[in-house]
Structure formats: C-alpha cells, structure tokens
Amino acid sequence: MITLRKAHERGRSQHGWLDSRHSFSFAGYHDPAHMGVSRLRVINDDRVAPGAGFGAHPHRDMEIISYVLEGALEHKDSLGNGSVIRPGDVQRMSAGRGVVHSEFNASQSEPVHFLQIWIEPDRRGIEPGYEQKRFADADKRGRFRLLASPDGRDGSVRIHQDARLYATVLAAGEAAELEAAPGRQIYLHVARGTVEKDGVHLAAGDGAAIREETRIRLIAREPAEVLLFDLP
Asked: How far apart are the first and last CA of the chain?
C-alpha cells in the first residue's frame, strides 16, 4: 500500500533569505493529517540565500540529519563542533538533553540547498553527540547505500532509533532495489529527478509512505537521487 505526498501539497515558509518546504507539520505549518511517519518527524527541503542562515538556537531529544544537495552548509554547535557540509556529506547531531547550534550558507555568492531531517530518538535525555561522514555518489549508484542506522554498520552514522536511512543515485533507466523486513514502514523522498515505483511516478519533492511491502524497487525515468527511510 502506497500513500503519496506530492511536492506541491507540502507546507511552505518563505523568509526572504529562506525558502523551506515541509513534508510534515513544522513551526507555523500545521496539518493534522501530516505529522510524520512512524518516528520520522521532519523533512524540510531548505534553500538558503548566500551568506544567510539559522542563528544559534536550541534543540533537545531529537536525532537531526543534514543532507546537502547543492552548495555548502556551515555548522557550529555548543559541543565545540564546526564544519562545512557539502554534497555527499551526511551530518548527524543527537540533541539529547540539549544542544545549541547554527547553520549558515558558507558561500557569499551561491545558494545552498539541503534537507533537514528529524527522527525521534528511542529515549530522552541522552548525551548530545555529533558525527559527519562522506558517501561518494559512486557508492550510491544503482543501489541503496546505508547512511544512518542504530548500530553504525557499513560505515553509516549512528542514530538512537530503530530506523535506517538509505540513499540511491540513479541514471536514467537505472534501477535500485531494497528488501525490508516484514512489518516495517518505508518512506521515500525524491531529492531530485523522477523515478517510478510499480507504475507510480515520483518527481523531485514527492514523498511516498509504503506499508505492507517488503520489496522496494525504483526505476529512474531521468537522473535521480532518492532517500529511503526504513522505520518501525
């Protein structure tokens, strides 16, 4: 069973320096029918103007993943971390019992386009933590590459939840397939391009919640990048 969330149906926030699309309820956008899927709480599709960004602000009890599609995102936090995240990088911040961070476009001339993802942790009040790893496109080509998991297997970043994040990069006509365990929920987010699943076309910004299926197979109708969430 598949339930679509089309790109144009998402919430939207515009603040001059920020254009953000919300797959699920977030901040001033509230839709009781779209509060998340399983433990996946937020997918914000953010475009930030050159030199602008989110000033220092607090988080707690959330697993926050940043996935950059274009440009460069500069991160600083109260744990003493500072980095620049570029396409191919995956950043995980466990807010735990409390952390303050900022995110800015690292360029003064080019916009940055990234996905901010929130996953609810399996317990509250953990020690805050930070991790950043790089995953080359070649490693995601034609297959679902594990990016985040509860045990950090296969070089993925570690999150505090029984959830897994995969990504694939596909050329036109190329396919990727994943076998999920029975009883799991799957959520797809198309970062760019167009793919097809069992005759259903999904374009950039579209999402799809999938239940009662264990075999997920996508075919790209044009070059595409897709995130897949394997959820309890």
From this structure: 16
How much is the pLDDT for 72? 98
Cα–Cα distance for residue pair 121/113, rounded to 1 Å: 25
Burial of 19 (0-12, 13-18, 19+ CB in 10 A): middle
Q: Is 189 helix (H, G, I), strand (E, B) or coil?
A: strand
How far, in Å, CA of 112 to CA of 147, rounded? 21
> CB under 8 Å to 163, separation ≥6 — which residues?
38, 39, 40, 119, 148, 149, 150, 229, 230, 231, 232
| Extended strands (E) in 16-111 | 18-22, 40-48, 53-59, 63-70, 73-77, 82-85, 89-94, 99-105
Integer Cα distance of 95 and 63 in angstroms: 6
Distance between CA 120 and CA 160 in Å, rounded? 8
Distances (CA, A) of 6 to 26, 190, 208: 17, 10, 8
pLDDT value of position 192: 97
Cα 80 to Cα 101: distance, rounded to the nearest angstrom: 10
Q: Write the Ramachandran bin of 35: left for phi over 0, alpha for psi from -120 to 50, otherwise beta.
A: alpha
Is the C-alpha dihedral spanning 119, 124, 130, 133 positive or negative?
negative
Give the pLDDT band (50/70/90) at residue 145. Answer: very high
pLDDT of residue 65: 98
Q: What is the pLDDT of residue 205?
A: 98
CA distances to 94, 125, 179 from 122, rounded to whole Å, are 11, 10, 24
Across the chain, what does the average pLDDT equal? 97
Q: Are 186 and 213 in contact (CB under 8 A)?
A: yes
